[in-house]
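Subject: design request, 383 residues
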């Protein structure tokens, strides 16, 4: 399977218009399942369409494997149908007057695959996608999920080396979406195809991707495994875009008892306070009570008032206030406390995300060893 390489790719739809994609450097490894994630209008579809050959890049170079498929500088543009890739969009675009089997076969005919091979290919992809029983039905006799499976089967039938999917599950209801995600993962494992999947849904990206590329305003923000994106966001945008409920952000410029506590705390861990403008804490990383922090180096401890409890089915969102600073917590344990109660909160030093005034991530320069010497010496704030 080929990899996909974008070098300094820019796209402007019109002269003078904003960049839809700006200086994008991204390599999608052969056999990888990469998700392009970001809010609407950030340039995800444009990127996918340039790789597909449905749009020309304004500058930069796109390679599929060793082959340059788009480069203004080299005067080269390979047409979409010659790029050997499969495309699946949000709309299924099935022929309404053709049956399931005929729809899938249509692609085989277009690619001039010998007729003698059709039945075997048909059976194989229809079985993979669990649609063999519908082979003689028309699209109007199928649910949205089944139609999307047919669209996927039609694409897989021609055995593309690269599969590009643009929000293919957005038209499906929640249960079907979940089912199709599992299916896509299985197909990826079975075929080993290089996959690029565009979505604005962070959960979808987290569930599917081997790596995620986060975009904003046409610019790449971070590329990493789902865990890296979640646990070490490169900037505030990524930190706030990924995670539900969203990450708590404490602005250090806004003076409060919490920031008064955070200054000496972070300084004691070697933080350069002139560089740190905000601290982020994920709701699920705040523990009620001592938590597991007995083994953690120098945790931060806060006393907070419980303002409200929101059950979400299986977990609870707690809204607390620490001397006026509102924080959200997420807990899997049935809360044994009531609104108005005072709670002891514990946060490990590792779970504080530090950002500078440009929103870029900053690390504490402390070695693990230094932190260990500070162990069991928590910072406390008592109300
Ligand atoms: P996303 O897929 O992340 O929602 P798009 O790639 O569709 O974002 O769009 C990126 C930017 O390019 C947006 O500002 C959008 O309005 C603009 N854009 C997309 N397609 C066209 C087009 N055909 N003509 C002009 N501008 C476009």
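Subject: RE: design request

Done. Sequence follows.
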């Amino acid at each position: 399977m080929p990899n996909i390489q974008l070098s300094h790719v820019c796209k402007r739809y019109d002269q003078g218009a904003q960049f839809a994609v700006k200086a994008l450097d991204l390599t999608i490894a052969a056999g990888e399942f990469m998700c392009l994630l970001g809010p609407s209008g950030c340039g995800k579809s444009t990127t996918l369409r340039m790789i597909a050959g449905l749009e020309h890049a304004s500058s930069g170079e796109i390679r599929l494997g060793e082959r340059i498929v788009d480069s203004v500088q080299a005067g080269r543009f390979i047409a979409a149908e010659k790029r050997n890739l499969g495309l699946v969009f949000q709309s299924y675009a099935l022929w309404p007057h053709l049956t399931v089997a005929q729809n899938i076969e249509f692609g085989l005919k277009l690619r001039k695959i010998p007729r003698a091979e059709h039945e075997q290919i048909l059976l194989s992809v229809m079985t993979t996608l669990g649609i063999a029983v519908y082979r003689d039905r028309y699209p109007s006799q199928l649910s949205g999920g089944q139609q999307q499976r047919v669209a996927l089967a039609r694409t897989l039938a021609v055995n593309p080396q690269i599969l590009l999917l643009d929000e293919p599950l957005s038209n499906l209801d929640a249960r079907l979406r979940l089912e199709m995600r599992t299916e896509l993962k299985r197909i990826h494992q079975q075929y080993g195809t290089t996959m690029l999947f565009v979505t604005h849904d962070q959960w979808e990206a987290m569930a599917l991707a081997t790596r995620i590329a986060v975009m904003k305003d046409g610019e790449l923000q971070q590329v990493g495994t789902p865990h890296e994106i979640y646990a070490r966001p490169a900037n505030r945008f990524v930190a706030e875009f990924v995670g539900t409920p969203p990450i708590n952000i404490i602005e250090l410029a806004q003076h409060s008892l919490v920031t008064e506590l955070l200054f000496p705390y972070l300084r004691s861990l070697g933080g350069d306070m002139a560089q740190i403008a905000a601290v982020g804490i994920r709701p699920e990383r705040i523990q009620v009570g001592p938590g597991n922090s007995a083994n953690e180096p120098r945790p931060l401890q806060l006393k907070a008032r419980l303002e409200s409890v929101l059950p979400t089915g299986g977990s609870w969102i707690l809204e607390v206030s620490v001397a006026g600073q509102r924080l959200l917590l997420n807990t899997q344990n049935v809360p044994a406390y009531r609104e108005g109660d005072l709670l002891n909160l514990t946060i490990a030093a590792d779970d504080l995300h530090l950002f500078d005034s440009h929103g870029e991530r900053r690390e504490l320069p402390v070695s693990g060893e230094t932190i260990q010497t500070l162990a069991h010496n928590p910072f406390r704030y008592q109300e």
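The domain at 4-241 is CATH 3.40.50.300 (Rossmann fold).
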